[in-house]
Structures are given as C-alpha cells and as structure tokens.
Amino acid sequence: MEQSLSVITLGVADVEAARAFYVDGLGWEATLVVPDDVVFLQIGHGMLLALWNAEHMTAEAGPIMDTRGSSASAPITLGHNVASAQTVDDVLRVAEEAGSPLVHYGEHREWGGYSGYFTDLDGYRWEIVHNPGLRVEPDGRVVFGG
Amino acid sequence: MEQSLSVITLGVADVEAARAFYVDGLGWEATLVVPDDVVFLQIGHGMLLALWNAEHMTAEAGPIMDTRGSSASAPITLGHNVASAQTVDDVLRVAEEAGSPLVHYGEHREWGGYSGYFTDLDGYRWEIVHNPGLRVEPDGRVVFGG
C-alpha cells in the first residue's frame, strides 16, 4: 500500500451548516458542493477534505459514533501549522467568530511549540500549531529538528 | 485561516502496536518515533499522520471518545485513491494480512467508482478508492469530472 492519504471525510449532521462554517466562516473555497450530501474542499497538494452527510456515511460505511451529541470530541485532530505563535491566536479568533463551539487559545507546549484548539460544529478538533522544530522541504518532505 | 491541513492525529491505545500495523504490516516508513508516545508518518506533500498515545492526547486535548472499545467506528474516513479497481482489492488484501480487524472488499458505487474499506487496530477507517471522475493536476490541484 502506498504511503499516502487522498481524502479525509468527516461525517456531519447538517451539510449546509458545515459548508457555511468552513466557507463563510473560515473563508475557504469549496471544490464541489452536492447539496444535502457532500462538500469537498482542497486542503493540501492533491488532498481533499470531505464533509459528508452522516446518515449517508453510515449507510455506506456502517455504524459511526455520534460526535455532535457527545460530551467527548472525536478522537482525531486535524493539524494546521502556521509560522508564528501570534498567528495561532489570530486563527483561533477567526474560528471563534465563525461560530466554533469550543476554542482553547494557544499555550506554550513542553515540546517547544505553541498551539491551541478549536472544534467545528460537529466536534471535529483542529489544532493550530506553531512548531519551530518542524519544516517542510521544497519537495514537500517534512523534517523534524534543526 | 489558510485552507490547509498539515497533520492528522489519531488517538491510539497502544503506540507500538499501531506502529507495527502501519510500518511492519502496511510497509510504511516512520518519519519520527517517540516510544510509547507518538509515531509520525509522511502521507502526502508536507503532510503527516500522527499516531498518538490516546491518554497523552486526552491530557492535552480533553476527553475523546473510546474507539477501540466501541462497536461503532470513528466518524472519519481516511481516503486512499488508487489507479484501478483491481488495486483496491489488492490493497485491502494487504490490510487484511497486516491484521486489520474489519475489511469490506470493493464494491461498484453509484457515483461511478469502486471502493472498499478496512479499519486499523483502533477502528480508524481507510477507504481504498478507484475514482475515474477525479484527477490530480501536476500542481496538486484536485479536479472533479472529465
């Protein structure tokens, strides 16, 4: 199996509300919108985020956990790396204004970086990170340290 | 907020077992291994998958759902696109041999493609997909149709 990810799909309770959060709230552009079914957004080189009607997802993929009604958030984190600690809090402010139900502003972390969290309307957690120990080479390879 | 994803982090019950599944089972290479804490694997242009000790994740990010003990799988899908329907089932066979607890071999889908699923040891679902209606341009942009 090739070492690659092409699409990450989140099951969402209300596709239009999810679209509005990402597109109107965060200012992103959709690549494809199928009303009441799915929205695709490009989030990297050859990489898509899909916001899929949770009922349709369950019909194809089998039972999934209910994130929206739970007091715990989904056991994944979507990481968004930025160039400075100031930008971490700037992005979190945008998410808060976009209607994020849970925002933890940035903290200095023991591993040397600065990060905070927000969740989207369905409880999917994004970590906004400034990590001075991680860099991306021109060819896209990620390098830790130095 | 820039429209990008840098890291996707999965909370895992046993970091060494998760490493073994991805590295020994699927044949992937780790970028960084911190024993009993976290394993990073490159899964795209400037993109990492992190397998993080679920207790450590909870300590930093707050309560998360327990995927491993649940009968439902995590409400996300990690998509892996391949060039043919045959490759879909070939990859699913590799995942089965690697110890995946749940494998659904490929089916023709109403949207015109062919896909199947496997879950990793913690219940995170990968969809292996042949989608003839989706292509990646040389610059990494994803295009639907034609």
Task: Provide the domain count of chain A.
Answer: 2
Strand order of the largest sheet of chain A: 1-4-3-2
Question: Shape of chain A, please?
Answer: globular
**Helical stretch count of chain A?**
3
What is the CATH class name of the largest domain in chain A? Answer: Alpha Beta
Class by SSE composition of chain A: alpha+beta
Please explain how this structure is put together.
The structure is a homodimer of 146-residue chains. With 146 residues, chain A is of the alpha+beta class. The first copy, chain A, folds into two domains: 62 residues, 2,3-Dihydroxybiphenyl 1,2-Dioxygenase, domain 1; 64 residues, 2,3-Dihydroxybiphenyl 1,2-Dioxygenase, domain 1, CATH 3.10.180.10. Chain A is 22% helix and 38% strand. Chain A has three helices and ten strands; from the N terminus they run E-H-E-E-E-H-E-H-E-E-E-E-E. In chain A, the strands form three sheets. In chain A, strands 1-4-3-2 form a four-stranded mixed sheet. In chain A, strand 2 and strand 3 form a beta hairpin. The radius of gyration of chain A is 16 Å and the shape is globular. The mean pLDDT of chain A is 92. The interface between A and B is large, with 66 and 66 residues.
